[in-house]
């Protein structure tokens, strides 16, 4: 039975969205787990042998299975074949026996070939688990550039820019429209670092992983001037070498969710 990662090899891996799904990974997951028609990808140059069978005759793995659950299962299988101790220095993690301890926001997660746990004892959201595994798979090769850019600077990011704006930038701006003091307290509480000099009213960094840092620029609303509050998220220019686009957007979304948590 073809797996999600095997199917990915046949896809263009551009996350163009022409199939109706946000990424090639999401498309492949739905094809394998939910029976989505593979022909919805208009850029397939070669059809996998398994999909050359007559329509209706092709077996579908776990047709009613949640794609998120199916993807996590595959990621757990994939991590078993990796030498985590060898990857640890590049990931910014510490080796601890057969596991590595990896900073994740204001927590540390313990990653092994068999499990993924929070040192704080909290239950990890499945989406966070996928994000952590993806960071490990990218390998963390090389240093950060120290140069900050917007998401729009990365290739094939057009469809993701609006998602980042809606679920991260606009959401944070609306919540703290005229209250930078409260925002500052929330950022301090989750371990964010304030940046000076700052070209906005407030600038701060949120470290998702050792090599994935988000820089937020916040401008307070000025109603008398007709200006709404605004937030801009920046990434290190090499961020795309440490996580895929979808994961980078989700990391920013999770950062805002954590800032808003009581």
UniProtKB/TrEMBL annotation:
Transmembrane segments: none annotated. Gene3D superfamilies: Electron transport complex subunit B, putative Fe-S cluster. PROSITE patterns: 4FE4S. InterPro entries: 4Fe-4S_dom, ACDS_complex_subunit, DUF3786. The keyword Metal-binding applies. Keywords: 4Fe-4S, Iron, Iron-sulfur, Metal-binding. GO terms for molecular function: 4 iron, 4 sulfur cluster binding; metal ion binding. This is DUF3786 domain-containing protein. Coiled coil: none annotated. Residues 1-66 form the 4Fe-4S domain.
């Amino acid at each position: 039975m073809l797996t999600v990662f095997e199917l990915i090899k046949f896809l263009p891996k551009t996350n163009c969205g022409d199939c109706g799904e946000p990424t090639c990974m999401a498309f492949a997951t739905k094809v394998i787990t939910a029976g989505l028609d593979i022909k919805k990808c208009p850029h397939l140059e070669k059809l996998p042998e398994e999909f050359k069978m007559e329509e209706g005759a092709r077996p579908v793995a776990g047709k009613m299975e949640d794609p998120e659950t199916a993807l996590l299962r595959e990621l757990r299988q994939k991590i078993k074949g990796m030498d985590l101790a060898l990857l640890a220095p590049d990931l910014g993690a510490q080796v601890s026996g057969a596991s590595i301890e990896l900073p994740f926001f204001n927590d540390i997660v313990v990653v092994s070939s068999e499990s993924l746990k929070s040192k704080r004892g909290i239950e990890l959201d499945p989406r966070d688990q996928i994000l952590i595994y993806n960071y490990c798979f990218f390998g963390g090769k090389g240093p950060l550039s120290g140069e900050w850019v917007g998401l729009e600077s990365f290739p094939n990011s057009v469809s993701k820019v609006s998602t980042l704006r809606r679920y991260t930038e606009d959401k944070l701006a609306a919540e703290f429209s005229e209250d930078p003091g409260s925002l500052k307290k929330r950022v301090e509480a989750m371990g964010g670092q304030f940046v000076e000099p700052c070209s906005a009213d407030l600038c701060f960094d949120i470290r998702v992983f050792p090599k994935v840092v988000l820089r937020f620029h916040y401008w307070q609303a000025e109603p008398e001037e007709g200006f709404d509050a605004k937030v801009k998220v920046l990434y290190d220019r090499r961020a795309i070498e440490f996580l895929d686009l979808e994961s980078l957007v989700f990391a920013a979304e999770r950062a805002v969710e954590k800032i808003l948590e009581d």
